[in-house]
Specification:
Urease, subunit C, domain 1, alpha/beta, eight-stranded parallel sheet, about 30% helix, TIM Barrel
Length: about 575
């Protein structure tokens, strides 16, 4: 049979095109700035879960795959780093934290943290030592861990009269966690907390005795107590110190909850420190009750000179209530027993009313920013869910809506069901799994068995599709909370400070890892650039001392970070 010349010509053209295409694929790989080879890489990318090597250019992954494939990206100036079979995960993300306050408390506050300070007596001695070297009238702040009234041997916190005796000439504030403080008489006078005053100008609550005299207890006084470092110190924290502390624990990004008063300093830093060693996703608060924010959020944005890969303003925060660990979480039923520090009614503290929560959420949505509502008690959680349902029903809501500390202390089946239904409308949740190791015993004492056993239901949350984003909630109160692997250990084993707690709520190691990577990325709308190792995302990785999928789950608490990598740069290496 005679061959058709036209068909022969077409075949030649097609074959030639294939050769050109194949040659281009083989020989035109772009050269990487850096490659990492010989690793055991868990990508958390569903289409390619494991790899041995990655290629990075302009701080993003350009290839993920085998050693042989990635070596094709080596050019004359490519830096090649051998991982020596170390285990690698996506860069860890702290999904809820207060980094500025953490460094300040760590460096400057009087340390009265349990267990190193086991008693009120020791806490007062620590304060007395500081007063000896402190000028008259200078404010002094003391850090006690949450639920110190449960942990100190005296089963209480320091009193106003005890503080007055030690510091008659200095305003002193003792923080029992971050949602309750004890102030001495000098501090109360400076705050305007005089006879009959129950509310401070920016939302703080004042407890009174039977004669209307302040007892010294201040609830949620974050906006009223003048506790802030100097601008030069804030600039140092954001420039270097925050990254140093968080990088050591494998974090490449933090959701930095930032006071409005400190924001201008961060904005200034962002113009001069264009590539810090950690990425800042910034949420701003003005007053605990959500008031004080501008109608237009343009002034809260990062400046145009800022590197958007490292600095992003994404949302605003308000507190609906306090926290159950200091008995200020807003609940439907009273706390067990009565303490001198309990707010009136013994059901906790309502910081933001339903009306104000609705308005706060509406304002965030109008500005196309994420609303973050802190909700600890069961009554507060309903206020948060109601506020988000209100904005969904009354407007075209396209923004993410977050409940912070969702279900940590209490969670009803109805609330879980409501949250599941609202997921499609942008609801995300933040959780703090390390609290299992610190606050379960206090929960039993404060709330009783029935209510306590509804907390920390991580497996139920995940089963409902809520993708809980884990955060350290670091404030400087519990310095050990920076360790995400102790938190993973608690999530997987259900170990608590009261023994094994509700073991049916244990989760898998893989889900525990997702809680610190892809889920917090989703909870701030950054899943396209963070949270997994795949082409096009920021080249952020955490190199671990052990393969967390191959060790006994009880050993998770012993995992250490060997390297932290941000944008392909090794920003921390364990010595």
């Amino acid at each position: 049979m005679r061959k058709n010349p036209k068909n022969q010509l077409l075949a030649v053209i097609v074959f030639s095109a294939f050769i050109v295409s194949f040659s281009t694929h083989i020989y035109s790989k772009e050269h990487a700035d850096t490659i990492f080879i010989n690793g055991q890489i868990e990508t958390l990318n569903n289409t390619q879960s494991h790899a041995n090597a990655v290629a990075i250019k302009n701080e993003k992954f350009i290839a993920v795959g085998s050693n042989q494939n990635i070596k094709g990206y080596i050019g004359s100036s490519t830096k090649v780093i051998d991982l020596n079979q170390q285990f690698v995960v996506p860069g860890l993300i702290d999904g809820h934290t207060h980094p500025m306050e953490t460094i300040w408390m760590k460096e400057d506050w009087v340390d009265a943290r349990y267990p190193d300070t086991p008693s009120v007596k020791q806490a007062l001695q620590n304060l007395a030592e500081r007063i000896k070297v402190t000028p008259r009238d200078q404010w002094v702040y003391v850090a006690c861990v949450s639920a110190s009234e449960n942990k100190f041997v005296e089963k209480r916190v320091p009193t106003k009269s005890e503080l007055d005796l030690i510091a008659p000439n200095n305003p002193v504030v003792v923080a029992n966690g971050t949602h309750m403080a004890i102030a001495n008489s000098v501090a109360l006078q400076k705050l305007g907390a005089t006879k009959g005053v129950t509310k401070l100008p920016h939302g703080g609550g004042v407890l009174l005795d039977k004669d209307g005299i302040p007892t010294g207890v201040i609830t949620d006084g974050q906006g009223d107590i003048p506790a802030a470092p100097k601008p030069a110190e804030i600039a140092r924290y954001y420039s270097t110190e925050i990254a140093k502390l968080w990088n050591q624990s494998g974090f490449t990004s933090v959701l930095a909850i930032t006071p409005a008063g400190a924001l201008p300093v961060l904005q200034s830093v962002s113009k001069s420190v264009t590539k810090p060693n950690i990425r800042y996703s910034v949420s701003v608060w003005a007053e605990p009750n959500g008031q004080g924010l501008p109608v237009n959020f343009s002034s809260l944005e990062m400046p145009k000179e800022a590197n958007a890969a490292y600095y992003r303003f994404f949302g605003v925060k308000a507190w609906v209530d306090g926290e159950n660990d200091c008995r200020t979480g807003f609940m439907y039923e009273p706390y067990v027993g009565n303490l001198d520090t309990d707010p009136p009614g013994n059901k906790g503290t309502l910081v933001t009313t339903q009306s104000n929560a609705n308005g706060f959420t509406k304002l965030a949505n109008q500005n196309q920013k994420i609303a973050m509502l802190h909700c600890s008690g069961d009554a507060a959680t309903d206020i948060g869910l109601n506020a988000y349902q209100h904005v969904i029903n009354s407007s075209h809501s396209t923004t993410i809506k977050r409940i912070e500390h969702f279900g940590m202390f209490q969670l009803s089946d109805e609330q879980l069901h409501r949250a599941k239904k609202m997921k499609k409308d942008g609801l995300h949740i933040s959780v703090q799994p390390i609290w299992l190791l610190e606050l379960v015993n206090a929960d039993y004492e404060n709330m009783g068995v029935k209510r306590t056993e509804t907390g920390f239901k991580f497996r139920s949350m995940i089963k409902a599709g809520l993708e809980p984003a884990a955060g350290t909630d670091m404030t400087g109160i519990y310095l050990g909370n920076i360790d995400p692997f102790k938190a993973m250990y608690a999530s997987v084993t259900r170990q608590s400070d009261k023994g094994i707690f509700e073991p049916q709520e244990a989760i898998s190691v893989r889900d525990a890892l997702r809680m610190w990577t892809i889920w917090p990325a989703k909870a701030v709308g950054e899943e396209k650039v963070k949270g997994s190792i795949e082409v096009g995302k920021y080249a952020d990785m955490t190199v671990l001392s052990k393969n967390i999928f191959q060790i006994p789950k009880e050993s998770l608490k012993d995992v250490r970070v060997d390297k932290t990598i941000v944008g392909g740069r090794i920003v921390y290496e364990r010595q």
